[in-house]
Specification:
- Chain B: Component of the cytochrome c oxidase, the last enzyme in the mitochondrial electron transport chain which drives oxidative phosphorylation.
- Chain B: Pathway: Energy metabolism; oxidative phosphorylation.
- Chain B: InterPro entries: Cyt_c_oxidase_su4 (IPR013288), Cyt_c_oxidase_su4_fam (IPR004203), Cyt_c_oxidase_su4_sf (IPR036639).
- Chain B: Keywords: Membrane, Mitochondrion, Mitochondrion inner membrane, Oxidoreductase, Transit peptide, Transmembrane, Transmembrane helix.
- Chain B: Component of the cytochrome c oxidase (complex IV, CIV), a multisubunit enzyme composed of 14 subunits.
- The structure holds 2 protein chains of 2 kinds.
- By secondary structure, chain A is an all-alpha fold.
- Chain A folds into 2 domains: 34 residues; 98 residues, Serine Threonine Protein Phosphatase 5, Tetratricopeptide repeat (Alpha Horseshoe), CATH 1.25.40.
- Chain A has 7 helices and no strands.
- In chain A, helix 2 packs parallel to helix 4.
- The longest helix of chain A is centred in the N-terminal third of the chain and has 29 residues.
- By secondary structure, chain B is mainly α.
- Chain B has 3 domains: 99 residues, no CATH class; 30 residues; 40 residues, no CATH class.
- Chain B is 48% helix and 2% strand.
- A two-stranded antiparallel sheet of chain B has the order 1-2.
- In chain B, strand 1 and strand 2 form a beta hairpin.
- Chain B is elongated and about 100 Å long.
- The chains are: A mainly alpha, B mainly alpha.
Chain lengths: 149, 176
Amino acid sequence: MLSITARNLASALRSSLVGTSSRVAAVRCLHGTEESAEEFDKRYEKYFSRDGIDGWEIRKGMNDLLGMDLVPSPKIIEAGLRASRRVNDIALAIRWLEGCKDKCGDQKATLYPYLLEKITPTLQELGIPTIEELGYDKPELALKSVYDA
Amino acid sequence: MSLIPCLRGRNLFQMTRRGFASGGDLIRLMVADREVVGYGINGRPIYFDSPDCPFPAIRYREVNPELCALREKELDDWKKLSLDEKKQLYRHSFCQTYAEFQHFTPEWKLCLGVALWVVALGIGISISMKTLVYRKLPDTFDDEHQSAQLRRIIQLQMNPITGISSKWCYHENKWK
């Protein structure tokens, strides 16, 4: 038992050491090549418009984007909506819209109308309702208490 | 409700024994007929609503015939879906909308209440320990003994560089 543990520990240590050094190398390579905002937008637009992207990858990209300290640009939002159209998942598109609205934070009054104005053609083309049309800008349902179920 | 038949029987013990943390069989059973659609927050097929990870790994509801019909319709142009159907599809994938799970609830009252109860319990325990468990403090804690101790420290010149004796002037026999 102990020997197994020791072996596992040793291999874990080794892999963590190796991992660190390669990570350090990666960071060093990245020095001096900071990605500009345009490049970032382009990268994610390309990611979402890739042929054969599936729901798994779309969700991963959206989760990542909504976890960052930024508001996705209208181009990225449109690419995300089109990607959800291609995998036939309207729920994904609506959630994505909601997430982007939430990312506007305390600037919702100024930023959100701008975003909406930019993406409205795409929304109309794909037939995706806005959050206001769905009535999801206000709480619609209350959750039942688990004790009443 | 649909969970209970899955958990019945002799398998329950085995299921709970096989790693829960690694997303073992028990979680798989709880997922039941729900589609696993993504990585989620940690790769386990669990559902929750959060702005940090708005796309959980599974859909909220199980697959059923009505939904399959709706999904067939979803393959076609989305303009042909009614608003109600769009809402149904959304609610199938997600439990709460952003507006709902970010809605301010009076839950803070419960948290504050429980926290104050815990503090009260702690104070009660310390008072009862003081009165019921511990004995009186030893003699050496009274003023007379403490000043004798201090005098001895100074006489022995303890900690003469930065400590207590460095504050004492030995020529004039008083504090510097």
